[in-house]
TrEMBL record:
Region (Disordered): 1-21
Organism from which the protein derives: Halobellus rarus
CDD domains in the cross-refs: TM_PBP2 (cd06261)
Entry keyword annotation includes Membrane: yes
Keywords, in A-Z order: Cell membrane, Membrane, Transmembrane, Transmembrane helix, Transport
Main subcellular location of this protein, as a coarse class: membrane
Gene3D superfamilies (UniProt xref): MetI-like
Protein name in UniProt: Carbohydrate ABC transporter permease
Residue intervals of the ABC transmembrane type-1 domain: 102-302
Transmembrane parts of this sequence: 43-68, 101-126, 138-158, 178-198, 219-244, 279-302
Length: 317
């Protein structure tokens, strides 16, 4: 009995099939990904998300572990729940006037944000809606300011604010010694964001407001700014966060005392010196977690505005 069948050309065709190659899990996944490329995109998204969570959230987790773990000399990534001490968060306010430091930071950040948004709105209107010679080089010059390190401005500003340049002008240990440098450093980014948004508002809307008798300034704040709300919100939130987290001028333009408008940086350094003959790492970690809360709340509340403000500028016509 024959194992094969006769072909039309006289040959013999075998009925036996070659055995399939044994493939491992990764090879099978590659084969399926070739047929469905979306699997690759999903895998890349999951890998990037996992990497982001590990690199950004793990330091906060370890900071929390450091705060609630007693100072016994041993620190574990997964500590025992029975040994945790959450009273350290109350010790932060008992050792120093930490609430005043936080209030100083919020006031400085809000004041700087208001000044930056007002001046950046005027500059954004000029650069975004008016034509004049040298507009692009001037915009590049303004943006170049943001690339200068803060240390480059410290010596002349310190001499100025301590009264060594102008007699009687002493801003050291006052809010002005920090608000002025903050405004100049963080304003270029806001000008760039608002210029992009203001330049996309149709001219007809402003012309209609001008026909009704309003001035250019009135049209700016009554028509253009409300229509550019996502961009204004984005510039404001980014400025607030940058000022709240600023370290250089916050540390050097005051003596670190809360009554002299020392911000949250001064509070964290004071916690370092709060312990007698010891470095209180747990209290410092707890203070750092408490200091992040206002910014975290702001980001959660305004995240939709931030995302829309950063993306809609590229989608509008």
């Amino acid at each position: 009995m024959s194992d094969g069948s006769t072909r039309s050309d006289g040959g013999v065709q075998s009925d036996r099939h070659e055995p399939e190659l044994t493939r491992g899990p990764f090879q099978r996944w590659v084969q399926k990904s070739i047929k469905d490329p979306k699997r690759v995109y999903r895998a890349m998204f999951y890998v990037a998300t996992l990497f982001f969570l590990v690199t950004t959230l793990f330091p906060f987790y370890f900071l929390l572990v450091l705060a609630v773990t007693p100072d016994t000399g041993s620190l574990a990534v997964l500590p025992q729940l029975s040994t945790l001490e959450f009273g350290v968060f109350l010790d932060v306010f008992d050792r120093i006037n930490f609430l005043r430091y936080m209030l100083n930071s919020v006031v400085l950040a809000l004041s700087t944000t208001a000044i930056v948004l007002f001046l950046a709105s005027l500059a954004g209107y000029v650069f975004g809606r008016l034509e004049f010679p040298g507009r692009q080089p001037l915009m590049l010059l303004i943006l170049a300011i943001s690339y200068f390190p803060p240390a480059a401005f410290f010596v002349p500003l310190y001499q100025l604010f301590t009264g060594n340049v102008v007699n009687g002008l002493s801003l050291y240990n006052t809010p002005g010694a920090m608000i002025l440098p903050f405004s100049s450093l963080f304003m270029p980014l806001s000008i760039f964001i608002l210029t992009t948004f203001y330049g996309q508002i149709p001219d007809g809307l402003e012309d209609a407001a001008r026909v009704e008798g309003t001035t250019r300034l009135g049209a700016l704040f009554r028509v253009i700014v409300p229509l550019s709300a996502p961009g204004v919100a984005t510039a404001g939130v980014l400025t607030f966060i940058a000022v709240y987290n600023e370290f250089f001028f916050s540390q050097l333009m005051n003596n670190g005392q809360p009554e002299n408008w020392a911000p949250i940086v001064g509070g964290l350094l004071s916690l370092q010196r709060a312990g007698q003959f010891e470095v209180t790492y747990g209290v410092m970690a707890a203070g750092s977690i408490i200091a992040v809360i206002p910014v975290a709340i702001l980001v959660v509340v305004a995240q939709e505005k931030i995302v829309s403000g950063l993306t809609s500028g590229a989608l509008k016509e």
